[in-house]
């Protein structure tokens, strides 16, 4: 905003109002006057009227403008300059170009626009200005730090391309801020070239951009984006006559103003299984479920393929079938109920090895031991030691009968001892008086309806006598009988867990096995005791894959070989357990001689949401809030004089305008006289 | 006898019931003439019919009685001879009114009066409303007064602007009987082409009367402010300074009227100029006086 040395002269501007008022008084009425026919009016020469009106307007404008400029000239305008804000005063500019290379930039036509914008942002700089280039998504790559070598930045720019990561502005602003903090120039700027996704703003306000740095956003977003994507895939596995089948459901999300029909294909192991035509609603989501697909043995690669659209990166969704992760169980129990319960279900699927007695070698590769009622002395010393070691090293033990017969090391798995039997035949069996539904093993029953723990009857159970000096948390009671005695116990031993019932689940001493809650109860307890976690069907770009999750048959300590979806091969040292997932598609990871494992990776769903923020809103959100930093200098007297010399230009303009006014006035006078 | 005051068109035309307006104006007008409304009834003989009780004995044909020795009365068919067609211009220019009454309102009232007058004379009355084309046509027949008044009550919106020739030509083709044609229009057209169009109405020797309806402002151009004038017919906008062009405008209008009168008179077409400020009775009187002074149209 200009300031004035003699602002009192601005009062003269009021004089401009006089001809305006006269004009308003005398001007032609804006509302037209209806008249039946203008056939006679048209015959009267009146063209001079319009021309005269135009001449009058020009004359009026010239006189008014001359008056305004005269007042301004006397008021002596000048433009105050903030240090560091004016280019002419503050010297060269340091500009960091932050180019968005997230997956959404692959939208048709967006990245070429972004490249053109970036190139323009480099070429428009003066040779004395410095420029830096960084590429960002949810991570940032500093390509060229600020320097006056513009060609270097241009060269680096030409090698840039969009990736598969999601967008976040914060890392880019952070690096740009670091670069600009080191810059000695007074004018510092970040040019953010992006498609302006709203979700990318997270954390941007705390990016630490130094004060005085301006952020200019150049949006290259498509105005009316239209995109369909697979947001999520769920797989239901089932077995039918020894055949493994899968029912795949995909959730499709559509962004666009109009409904659209699209072809969706399910591909399993590289073979197209089924194609459906799906009607996508306008800006909405829809689920599509495919028919039963037969699965090959082992893990299969699956894909949902959408009819290609403007954003091809999210038109293919990779996932794994049959990789849910079996829970390998060693069942040493003569009761049919638990065995039957473990045969049912696929979340997780149970791989059950059934034995009548526990042998140490059977523990290899198992995650859980389910132990039924063992006769006295059924467990040998070696087996007992192996079982104790198994639990301490992270295995699970689920005792479906009070493990009173355990001897040796295994006897110490529960911090206490089992006492005499309690018979509740007289009062028709005990019921459960307390169940800890907040416990992770039972939490699933807290919100589920139809499972009534109090209906189960227990005719007989054993008393448990806990050790006197127990550490906190070493023994938990998950359920108690109605007389307050322990019904279900949990003990943490080393890295493993032990769960034990005080009454045998054999159908004789309790009717719990015939209650509706038995099946889910056994599944949940098995899952909890073994600390089993379902293997994800797919991962997202930007995430990490745990190479050391113990599922590799090959021993750890060997380097891992990873082949990315684009075919890039890399060897990871044995100590590296995490694999960063940078590409969408299927990774192949292998360690030693073990067969390679497939890892399905997809771009983040946020990249499919192409809703862009308003440019001003985005700039306001990214504007640094800190105090101005960096060098500043005051203007020299010469510069002050230059900034205050506007009055000369004003006076010159007044003279020119008055000359024009004279010419127009003379022309009009001649016409009027004629 | 006290003179009956004349009716201000602005007041009388506020009454929506055209039948009432016509009756009020025509009855008052006829009474003011001191002549029987039946005086002009035709004496053309039609037929005889046997005398019945209550018949005027003056109508008994005594000669026939002498020949037949039976009473017969004469029947006249004054109501079946004259055909009276009112051609009403309803174009957009007729919707103009500098005061409370537009030219169309005035012409409509006038048409209603004429229709009532003619109907009371037992003439066949018809109505044609037109702008660039014929919008409503009721052929002249007896007993059509109600239909005509209804049509005048519901004048359609004007569709377009155009010369008089096409609608008047089609009206001439549609009319089969010789009679009187009364054209009510503001005649915003070149006199030559207007007269050419009106000439078509003189089919088979029909008598044509032109009631040239104008608003006073159309003759005087009384505007003061520099304005943009909008042609109601074409929508054209023309900026003008009324003060500067008034005299020239008035001269052109008067020249136009004079040219129309002269050219129509040459064709023996009666031209009656009527301003909307003129009371309807006076307008009717002028019209009838110019046509021979009879109460019959």
Name the helicity range of chain A.
Answer: 10-25%
The outline of chain A comes out as elongated
* Percent of residues in helices of chain B: 25-40%
Nearest-angstrom radius of gyration of chain B? Answer: 22 Å
* Computed structural class of chain A: alpha/beta
Let me know the largest β-sheet of chain A. Answer: 8 strands, mixed
Main sheet: strands, sense, barrel of chain B: 6 strands, mixed
| pLDDT averaged residue by residue of chain B | 78
Q: Which word captures the global form of chain B?
A: elongated
Q: What does this protein structure show overall?
A:
- The complex is a heterodimer of chains A (674) and B (297).
- Helices cover 24% and strands 30% of the residues of chain A.
- Chain A is built from 14 helices and 33 strands.
- The longest helix of chain A has 29 residues, at 47-75.
- Chain B has 297 residues and is an alpha/beta fold.
- Chain B contains 10 helices and 10 strands.
- In chain B, the strands form 3 sheets. A 6-stranded mixed β-sheet of chain B has the order 5-4-3-6-7-10, with helices on both faces. A two-stranded antiparallel sheet of chain B has the order 1-2. A two-stranded antiparallel sheet of chain B has the order 8-9.
- In chain B, helix 7 (191-199) links the parallel strand 6 and strand 7 (207-214).
- In chain B, helix 2 (18-33) crosses helix 10 (280-290), helix 4 (103-120) runs antiparallel to helix 5 and helix 6 runs parallel beside helix 7 (191-199).
- Residues 1-6, 31-43 and 292-297 of chain B have low confidence and may be disordered.
Observed structural traits:
heterodimer, A: 674 residues, 8-stranded mixed beta sheet, 33 strands, B: 297 residues, alpha/beta, 6-stranded mixed beta sheet, two-stranded antiparallel sheet, 10 strands, elongated, disordered C terminus
Present the secondary structure layout.
The complex is a heterodimer of chains A (674) and B (297).
Chain A: E1 3-4, H1 17-26, E2 33-35, H2 39-43, H3 47-75, E3 77-78, H4 87-90, E4 93-100, H5 110-123, E5 130-136, E6 140-147, H6 150-158, H7 169-181, E7 187-194, E8 213-219, E9 227-240, E10 243-255, E11 260-268, E12 271-280, E13 284-289, E14 293-294, E15 300-306, E16 316-321, E17 327-332, H8 336-343, E18 350-354, E19 368-371, H9 381-392, E20 396-399, E21 416-423, E22 432-435, H10 444-447, E23 460-466, E24 475-481, E25 486-493, E26 496-501, H11 518-530, E27 539-540, E28 544-546, E29 560-563, E30 569-572, E31 578-580, E32 585-591, E33 597-602, H12 615-622, H13 637-643, H14 646-673
Helix pairs in contact in A: 3-14, 5-6
Chain B: H1 9-12, H2 18-33, E1 45-50, H3 62-68, E2 72-76, E3 83-89, H4 103-120, E4 124-130, E5 134-141, H5 145-153, H6 165-174, E6 180-185, H7 191-199, E7 207-214, H8 216-220, E8 227-231, E9 237-240, H9 242-266, E10 270-275, H10 280-290
Parallel strand pairs in B: 3-4, 3-6, 6-7, 7-10
Antiparallel strand pairs in B: 1-2, 4-5, 8-9
Helix pairs in contact in B: 2-4, 2-10, 4-5, 6-7, 7-9
């Amino acid at each position: 905003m200009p300031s004035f040395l003699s602002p009192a002269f601005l009062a003269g501007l009021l004089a401009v109002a006089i001809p305006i008022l006269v004009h308003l008084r005398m001007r032609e009425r804006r509302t037209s006057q209806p008249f039946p026919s203008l056939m006679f009016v048209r015959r009267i020469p009146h063209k001079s009227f319009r021309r005269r009106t135009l001449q009058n307007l020009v004359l009026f404008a010239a006189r008014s403008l001359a008056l305004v400029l005269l007042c301004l000239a006397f008021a002596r305008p000048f433009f105050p300059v903030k240090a560091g804000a004016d280019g002419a005063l503050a010297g060269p500019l340091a500009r960091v170009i932050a180019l968005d290379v997230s997956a959404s930039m692959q939208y048709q036509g967006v990245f070429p626009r972004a490249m053109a914008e970036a190139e323009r942002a480099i070429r428009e700089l003066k040779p004395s200005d410095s420029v830096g280039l960084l590429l960002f998504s949810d991570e940032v790559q500093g390509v060229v730090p600020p320097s006056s070598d513009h060609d270097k930045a241009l060269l680096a720019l030409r090698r840039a391309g969009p990736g598969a990561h999601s967008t976040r502005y914060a890392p880019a602003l952070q690096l740009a801020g670091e670069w600009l903090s080191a810059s000695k120039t007074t004018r510092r700027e970040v040019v953010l070239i992006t498609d302006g996704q709203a979700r990318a703003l997270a954390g941007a306000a705390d990016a630490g951009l130094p004060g005085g740095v301006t952020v200019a956003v150049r949006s290259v977003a498509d105005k009316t984006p239209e995109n369909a994507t697979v947001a999520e895939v769920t797989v239901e596995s089932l077995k039918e006559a020894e055949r493994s089948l899968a029912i795949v459901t995909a959730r499709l999300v559509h962004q666009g103003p109009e409904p659209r029909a699209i072809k969706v294909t399910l591909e399993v192991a590289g073979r197209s299984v089924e194609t459906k035509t799906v009607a996508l609603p306008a800006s909405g989501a829809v689920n599509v479920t495919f028919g039963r697909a037969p699965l090959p043995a082992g893990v299969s690669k699956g894909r949902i393929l959408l009819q290609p659209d403007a954003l091809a990166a999210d038109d293919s969704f990779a996932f794994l079938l049959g990789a849910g992760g079996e829970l390998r169980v060693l069942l040493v129990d003569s009761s049919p109920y638990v065995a039957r319960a473990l045969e049912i279900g696929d979340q997780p699927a149970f791989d059950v090895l059934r034995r009548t007695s526990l042998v140490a070698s059977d523990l290899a590769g198992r995650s859980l031991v389910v132990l039924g009622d063992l006769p006295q002395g059924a467990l040998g010393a070696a087996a007992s030691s192996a079982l104790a070691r198994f639990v301490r090293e992270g295995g699970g033990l689920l005792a479906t009968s009070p493990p009173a017969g355990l001897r040796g090391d295994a006897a110490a798995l529960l911090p206490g001892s089992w006492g005499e039997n309690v018979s509740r035949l007289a009062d028709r069996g005990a019921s459960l008086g307390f169940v800890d539904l907040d416990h992770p093993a039972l939490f699933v029953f807290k919100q589920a309806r139809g499972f009534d723990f109090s209906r189960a009857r227990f005719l007989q159970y054993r008393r448990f006598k806990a050790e006197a000096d127990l550490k906190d948390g070493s023994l938990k009671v998950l359920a108690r009988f109605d007389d307050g005695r322990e019904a279900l116990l949990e003990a943490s031993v080393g890295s493993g867990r032990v769960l034990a019932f005080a009454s045998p689940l054999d159908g004789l001493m309790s009717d719990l096995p015939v209650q509706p809650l038995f099946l889910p109860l056994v599944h949940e307890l098995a899952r909890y005791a073994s600390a089993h976690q379902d293997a994800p069907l797919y991962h997202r770009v930007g995430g990490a894959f745990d190479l050391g999750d113990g599922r590799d048959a090959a021993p750890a300590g060997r380097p891992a070989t990873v082949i990315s979806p684009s075919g890039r091969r890399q060897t990871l040292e044995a100590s590296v357990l995490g694999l960063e997932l940078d590409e969408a598609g299927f990774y192949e990871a292998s360690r030693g001689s073990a067969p390679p494992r497939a890892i399905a990776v997809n771009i983040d769903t946020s990249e499919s949401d192409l809703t862009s923020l308003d440019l001003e809103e985005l700039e306001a959100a990214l504007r640094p809030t800190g105090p101005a930093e960096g060098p500043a200098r005051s203007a020299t007297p010469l510069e002050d004089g230059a900034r205050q010399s506007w009055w000369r230009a004003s006076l010159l303009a007044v003279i020119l305008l008055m000359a024009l006014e004279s010419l127009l006035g003379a022309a009009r006078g001649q016409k009027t006289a004629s | 006898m006290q003179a009956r005051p004349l009716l201000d068109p602005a007041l009388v035309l506020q009454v929506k019931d055209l039948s009432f307006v016509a009756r009020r104006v025509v009855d008052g007008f006829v009474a003011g003439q001191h002549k029987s409304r039946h005086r002009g009834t035709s004496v053309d003989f039609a037929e005889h019919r046997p005398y019945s009780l209550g018949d005027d004995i003056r109508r008994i044909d005594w000669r026939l009685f002498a020949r037949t020795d039976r009473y017969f009365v004469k029947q006249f068919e004054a109501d079946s001879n004259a055909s009276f067609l009112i051609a009403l211009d309803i174009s957009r220019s007729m919707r103009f009114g500098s005061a409370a009454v537009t030219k169309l309102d005035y012409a409509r009232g006038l048409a209603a009066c004429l229709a009532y007058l003619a109907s009371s004379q037992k003439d066949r009355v018809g109505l044609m409303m037109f702008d660039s084309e014929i919008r409503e046509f009721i052929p002249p027949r007896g007993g059509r007064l109600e239909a005509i008044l209804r049509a005048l009550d519901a004048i359609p919106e004007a569709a377009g602007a155009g010369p008089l020739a096409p609608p008047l030509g089609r009206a001439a083709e549609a009319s089969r009987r010789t009679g009187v044609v009364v054209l009510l229009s503001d005649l915003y057209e070149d006199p030559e082409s207007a007269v050419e169009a009106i000439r078509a109405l003189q089919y088979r020797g029909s008598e044509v009367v032109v009631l040239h309806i104008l608003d006073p402002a159309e003759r005087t151009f009384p505007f003061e402010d520099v304005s943009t004038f909008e042609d109601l017919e074409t929508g054209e906008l023309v900026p003008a300074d009324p003060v500067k062009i008034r005299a020239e405008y008035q001269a052109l209008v008067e020249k136009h009227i004079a040219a129309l009168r002269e050219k129509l008179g040459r064709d023996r077409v009666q031209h009656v100029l009527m301003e909307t400020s003129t009371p309807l009775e006076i307008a009717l009187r002028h019209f009838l006086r110019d046509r021979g002074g009879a109460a019959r149209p």
